[in-house]
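Field: COMPLEX_INPUT
Field: COMPONENT_COUNT = two
Field: RESIDUE_TOTAL = 640
Field: MODE = joint
Values follow.
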Amino acid sequence: MEIDSQVPGGETGRIGNNPETGIASAQGAMSVEEYQEKLKRTEVSKFESVRKSLRKDWQLYTFLILPVVYLIVFQYLPMIGNVIAFRRFVPGGSMLGQEFVGLRYFEMFWNDRTFWRVFRNTLTIGGYTLLFNFPIPIIFALLLNEVKSIKFKRFVQTASYLPHFISMVIVAGMIMEMLSASGIVNQVIEWFGGNPTIFLQRAEWFRTIYVGSEIWQRTGWGAILYLAALTNIDPNLYEAAAIDGAGRLKQTWHVTLPGIMPTIITLLILNIGNFMNVGFEKVFLLYNPLTYETGDVISTYLYRIGLGSANFSYATAIGLAQAVIGFILVMGANLLSRKLTNRSLW
Amino acid sequence: MHLNDTKGYKIFRVVNIIVMILIVIATFLPFVNIVAQSFSSERYITAGEVFLLPRGFNVDTYRAVLQNQRFWIHYRNTIVYTVVGVAIAMFLTTLLAYVLSKPKTRLKGKGFWVGFAVFTMFFAGGIIPTYIVYNNTLNITNTMWAVVFPLALSIYNMLIMKAFFENLPTALEEAASIDGMSTYGIFLKIILPLSKPILATMTLFYAVAYWNAWFQAFMFLNEWTLFPVTLFLRNLISGATATGEAAAAEAGSTQIASNVRSVAMFLTVLPIIMVYPFVQKYFVSGIMLGSVKE
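Field: COMPLEX_OUTPUT
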């Protein structure tokens, strides 16, 4: 499976294969000057062909204008705005900051004990999320696949997607209601003779609440791609396995799992890439000063020091570091997967 | 049912069905609890006596919330942001998906343009620079554009749509082109009518995203009259009265009753739950279209 095969810079700098100049075939006996001359002509003719294409097909190119302007203004401009991680920013001043201060803000967070706490929390929460939220949809898909009644299967599937479409505010609200002193979780605890706990004020519960609600929100939707991959497995393979004496468990191990392995790997790459992007919204809605110790993550911390205390440059430095680590993680996971399994997103 | 299933497998299937039923119950439980609370009187809620059925059944809370003008201002804002946002998002997404679906023989520099768009999926500007751009450079904080623009082009959605366009048969387009139809004509009269399923799916994806969004409003809006209902709700549940007068005035105190919160939550989630059974197949087909592209 590919998300897209043409990602960055696929064809820039390709100058051969141009039928008009025939450079690909004429490389044999050629002096340096001749070669440079050809090269120049190739460039000219490439420019020429772009111009011709623009003139002939200008309507198509107009489709690019608005989306590209949008991306420049709303995506690339903030990206450029990251330079204030290296420059002192004054509220009301230029978005590019006032003066160059080098790595001062990076040193600042390196020596900031709170930064290391939120860094650790981010890794821990991200790790738990990966540990539970990656395999559970696979298990759910495998179990659902064993349900024979199509109607019941479809009903379970449809029901399980629902949380994916609910606003994070509602999810957080429901969590708060359920975990409040009089909420249903504490009601159950009391029925069993336990003492009620205000879970959201207890630091040791924060990660459990976060990961548990992630499972509730994401399992159904996360299983979709696996279920699709499962329906694509050739039924003959199961029959052949059965004839060879493989029971259901062995069939699952030797036919089903290899059948969905490409999907598993693709999603694993994406999950590892998102490892550091612990859901800002949910943490922000659920945490409070009592749970900062375990719940505060990089994104919420930089939000507080940036927009809360107006340390724009410092917060940007932290955000930039996080974005770069995230980018390296995606690229690294992708590269590793290509090396090990010959499968990658691009 | 296969006759030659082993006894172990039969037991597994029974257990499996029970597990599936439990999953469905776990999925619905929080919703049912909220609905039960919304019809209950506060007394029973604080006593911890409302589980799945209302206690002290009444519709007074609904009446109070529905008669509250502020609630409707927020609700109307959400509807406006959703409609305007979806229109802009569909426009931008369709344009970009269509042009990027063309082969590189027609679209020169295709690799560059695809990369230009996809890069933004993996590397974003970050919260603070984004805030500065919106606030200082574009000067659109405290307007609806600060809520509408952040979600107006999802590259993920665009890639799904691009895959759909790439799978359309090219013959029709070529024939129309030979007949002298312009690219605009082909796009409007041939491509769009053929693309109704994907357009429906994308409209729904964006509509849900706009309906559910709250953080952009939280970050960029100060005037409570501009708040969408999700932000109003956020202020209710977090008891944060400082972010807007709305929540404070609503409550009269800092503590807002559980049944009021439940009613507001239920009314906010209601449109999604109501259309969900009818549209969920589009969501699923959408995500499939994007992925089934070997």
